[in-house]
Amino acid sequence: MLNQLTLTQTIEGLKKNQFSLDELYQAVDQAIGKKNKKLNAYLTLNEKSLATAKKQSKKALMGVPIAVKDNFCTAELRTTASSKVLDNFQPPFNATVVNKLEENGGVVLGKTNLDAWAHGSSTETSDYGRTLNPRNTDYLPGGSSGGSAAAVAADMCIAAIGSETAGSIRQPAAWCGAVGVKPTYGRVSRYGVAAMASSTDSPGPITKTVEDGAVLLNAIAGHDPLDATTNEEKSPDFTKLIGKSIKGLKIGYIYHDTEGLEMVNEKLESQLPVLEKLGAKVEKASALDPHYAIGVYTVVQRAEVSSNLARYDGIRYGNDRSYFCHEAKKRQMLGTYTISRATEINTYQLAQKVRTLFVEDMKKLFSKYDILVSATSPGFAKKIGATEGSAMFGELEDMLLEPSSITGYPGINVPFYHDPQTNLFLGMSLVVPMWEEQKMFHVADAFEKNTDWNTWRKQS
Amino acid sequence: MSWQDKYKPVIGLETHAELKTASKMFCGCVNDPFGAKQPNSHTCPVCLGMPGGLPVPNKKAIEWTLKIGLATDCEVNLFSKFDRKHYFYPDLAKGYQISQYDLPFCYGGKLETSQGIIGIRRVHLEEDTAKLLHKKIDGKDVSLIDFNRSGVPLVEIVTEPDIRNGAQAKEYGKKMRQLLRYLDVADCDMEQGGMRLEANISLRKKGTKELPSYKVEIKNINSFRFMEQAIDYELERQAKILDSGETPQQETRGWDATKNQTFSQRSKEEAEDYRYFPEPDIPPIRFTEDQVEKIKSALPETPQQVAGRWEKDYELTAAQAAQLSTVESESELAWLDSILKLLNQQKLDIQLFANDLINKKLSVTQKLTPEEVVKRFESLHATEEIDGGELAGLIQEVLKNNQDAVEKYQAGEQQVLGFLMGQVLGKIDKKLDPKQVRNALQTALED
User: Given a cut of 80, is residue B237 above it in pLDDT?
Assistant: First the structure.
């Protein structure tokens, strides 16, 4: 089945003329036709994707179909950010990531579901209904890039693009048993991505393998004159260290003796010997209590959300503010409060100070280790409806990722355990120093290739 | 006892000027809101506040802001940043204005006026809003928005509350406009809103140090004359209220140019909460001492500095130097400077030249070279020779024909001398030296 191919395999197959773009798109369309109604991963499909692909076939990505989260502006397709505020919003421009994707031969196959405005870790806050986990439809796919992760896991695309503010790529990838890449803040342009928290938003790939993640990041990374926070230096080839020995690398296993982490800690510890066997040195390391990171993130993100959503007034485009869902209203109210003069202390500034402590902690850790490893999420995917009545659901779910999110450090999720009974996965989080994404692809790929957890590797 | 004996005015000015950079402040759109052929033609996702639109600061606008700051003796913040200022208005595309809060690019400068120095508290950079147009279309009242102005670089110059009266505010405003034009960074078209003034006015009791407990803001004044009138009116109004034992209301007032009075627009009981926080889309901005020095050394001599030099070198009076240096371009000032230099070299009367220009006796433009101007000045005062006997004959003839004037003069009416001079000069088709004629005439009359 061509839709089950990884990105690397698809490019290879197209290069060798083992199949045509028509056959590839037919297989993907069939999968979508069969599964999307139930899974609700796509909100909008691109009718012209195959025609576009045929024009792209000479470029690096050869015209492969890529699913794109619906908070990326697309000039040809409506863009909703899963909010009825933008119910029929047709942007007059493409996000830089979309342009880069197309310049490199990728094709936007469709726009995927997310938590409305990317507010959430379940895809349950979408105004267009929740997405289900393709691995087990009684469960949630995670979020906010739940639609993209589900599209990958269900083979309804070859690879996908998501965006992460704190866990929104890595956590749904973990829950759906896929690879999720959160690049360094500033590595990938945010231009044309409906902003959530401007100081942490990072677009990135969700893919079937680690190598796919590196290939797709190569296509979308780099300086953008339209985003003043992007790195002006040229991006390296992210696949460069893939396949090389990890011998001698120092890996810090971030251990938190925190209630609720016992199960993932135990399962993760059983997998660390894989890395040791490959020659890496693994050592237990302690880091700042991630609960503080939740505090920082909650204040900073809500503040920026309240500001970033102010433009949606229904005057120039879209519907008026009464169309905001409960979650978005709640976040805007809390954010407005944290930057207002209503509080005696400046909560936002205080949070920024604690954020600096996390940056210092990261620097300290990386003075000792090449790479940090932990579980991505405190557990398996949660059942449908789990978010109800749990205001801080996402923050707790993303607790282990928030330190790297608020500090801008890059990270990757790679599956490290599979429960045969539920068919659900656990994900391992690898975090590396700023601008050194090559290292995380290096180690994650070594782990993936030397274990059986990745379902796509198993096939081949 | 007038109110001036009891109260001291506390007046500060905020000046907004649109910079004339080629592109807008945070996007690549053309910065020409007045020249645009169509409304909303100079727009893009950034200045329209579309999802994912991101601001990229205009380097030229930042450099020009430093230029303005340095030309007014400001310090430069070597570490600076932009902040978001939040409020809702239909002309504000993003729901916030990108401005500067606690770290403006420049601070602590000054500008001199004839009534004393006015401190400049800060010079910062922000973006302009769109323009609202209220119209009737098909019988329906509608509000239209033109985003051509949205995101135009806007510099804000805030003074210390050092201003004493309307006249000084007007002089400051005019000097600031002259400086901005002279630095070639802003057109300052007040009619179009390219330069906008706001005055904060209050009175404090003489002898007290603390600032008054209230502040009246006068907004949207589009001429210096109106500003002067509004300030003076407001000082009188507030003095009357204070005299009656009350405190004027904290409010925003406008100027009614037909009734010649200020009127209440909106009361401002509490300070507004703009929920400022650092703009996360733009990294902080750092300058090195070298960069600042480079901008500083490239600054042209300001009109004030040139005037000071003229006073010293050519013994012009302060008033003459100030009036003569009131030009709006660097090239015009340099042109004048080289004329004065030339006059000085040729040992000609520079004070006379200055008066001729000020009194419009001599009308010259930059189209003439300094040499040509000097020639014109000389020919203005050139005289022709006349034989002493010929002149005496002329005078006798005039005196004979104007016996009653001669009698008047001899009775003490000195002013008829001018009339007689005119008669003499009119008799001959030559440009005579008035001094020579006057002397000869006086001698003849006193005989």
Answer: yes
SS3 content of chain A, % helix, strand, coil (to 5): 40, 15, 45
A181 Cβ contact list (under 8 Å, min separation 6): A169, A204, A205, A206, A207, A213, A214, A216, A217, A410, A412, A437
Structural domain of B438: 388-446
Task: Choose the catalytic residue: A49, A122, A144, A405.
Answer: A144
Query: Final residue of a domain: which of B286, B308, B340?
Result: B286
A168 is catalytic: yes
**B138: exposed, middle or buried (Cβ count in 10 Å: 0-12, 13-18, 19+):** exposed
Which CATH code fits A2-293+348-459? 3.90.1300.10
Respond yes or no: is residue A144 known to be catalytic. Answer: yes
Looking at the complex, report in whole angstroms how far the Cα of residue B51 sits from the nearest Cα belonging to chain A: 5
Does any domain span residue B292? Answer: no
Strand bridging mode B116-127 / B106-113: antiparallel
Domains of chain B: total? 3
Residue B295 domain-assigned? no
CATH code for the domain of B426:
1.10.10
Q: State residue B55's pLDDT score.
A: 98
B236 and B357 both lie in a single domain: no
Q: What is the pLDDT of residues A419-460, one digit of tens each?
A: 999 999 999 999 999 999 999 999 999 999 999 999 998 765
- Which residues on chain A are in Cβ contact (under 8 Å) with B281? 195, 198, 227-229
Model's pTM, two decimal places? Answer: 0.90
Q: Is A54 a catalytic residue?
A: no
Decide: A443 and A249 in contact? Cβ < 8 Å: yes
